[in-house]
Design goal:
Elements lengths: L1 E6 L2 H8 L2 H9 L3 E6 L12 E3 L7 E3 L1 H23 L5 E11 L2 H7 L4 E6 L7 H7 L2 E4 L9 H12 L32 E2 L2 E2 L2 H4 L3 H19 L1 H10 L6 H8 L1
Parallel strand pairs: 1-2, 1-6, 5-6, 5-7
Antiparallel strand pairs: 3-4, 8-9
Helix pairs in contact: 1-6, 3-5, 8-9
The structure holds adenine (ADE).
Adenine binds next to strand 5.
Length: 254
């Protein structure tokens, strides 16, 4: 997976993404992260990339030309690399914006199957609509609040997507059982010591009885989701209605 981030602050993105698990994944070659400075593509002699909005209103808008030229250069570079393997399939361009659909684990999984992804980070009051119409394929927000720019949301999404790319997580860091993987929050977990602040680890976890442990974990996941995320719990129960007891199922068949 190759991430390409179009931004006015490339060092912010690279500093943030070249540490810890994502940094190791880059070193291992499972993913690559490049940040391209949109300002490098302005044709303005003062290196300006923004201007006032038509119709008035507060703040400045990023102009179409530098954004378009930056995307064009990236797209051409990606096309050259892909020529042998992928033909000329267009690379998805994600504009990170509070006006987009809200990012979820499902979206992360969908995007993790792409070979290349371009993220476009806006600043100031946003970006001229005309260039967005021409290049953007996905409008995605990380939540219903407004940040000062698109870099942090892009980093959040790159992190969430990367951990689903094969080879990025080691076996000990599995993405299978965690919260949101199956539409439920994860069950509570405990490590040594067995008793801490007079609180004992639940007996079932010490029993070695795997079926009982699985059952307990599912019950805990359901309970935790019902309490903390009722809308998520309702969606899960609708998709997985509880099975009627065995004798009732027999009666229904007769
Ligand atoms: N840019 C500013 N706020 C944002 C948000 N919540 N999600 C994505 N991009 C943003």
């Amino acid at each position: 997976m190759h991430f390409h981030i179009m931004t006015l602050f490339p060092e912010m993105v690279l500093d943030g993404l070249h540490t810890s698990i994502i940094g190791r994944a880059v070193e291992k070659g499972c993913i690559s992260v490049e940040a391209v400075n949109i300002r490098d593509y302005t044709r303005d002699k003062h290196k300006k990339v923004d201007d006032y909005t038509y119709g008035g209103g507060a703040g400045m808008l990023m102009q179409a030309q530098p954004v378009y030229d930056c995307w064009k250069a990236l797209e051409e570079k990606i096309a050259v690399r892909k020529e042998d393997s992928q033909g000329n399939k267009k690379t998805r361009v994600v504009y990170v914006t509070p006006q987009g659909e809200v990012f979820t684990q499902r979206k992360a999984a969908e995007l993790s199957r792409e070979e290349d992804l371009i993220f476009l980070c806006g600043h100031y009051e946003g970006i001229d609509e005309r260039v967005l119409e021409e290049i953007v394929t996905d409008y995605i927000s990380i939540g219903d609040y407004v940040l000062t720019g698109g870099e942090l949301p892009a980093m959040v999404m790159v992190d969430a997507i990367s951990r689903l790319v094969p080879g990025v997580l080691s076996n000990g860091e599995s993405a299978q059982t965690e919260s949101h993987a199956d539409g439920l929050l994860e069950y509570p977990q405990y490590s040594r010591p067995e008793v801490w602040h007079d609180k004992k680890v639940p007996d079932v976890l010490l029993s070695g009885h795997h079926a009982n442990i699985e059952k307990w974990r599912l019950e805990q996941s359901l309970e935790r989701t019902r309490e903390r995320r009722p809308e998520m719990y309702e969606a899960y129960i609708t998709a997985h209605p509880p099975k009627p007891p065995k004798n009732r199922r027999r009666q229904e068949r007769n």
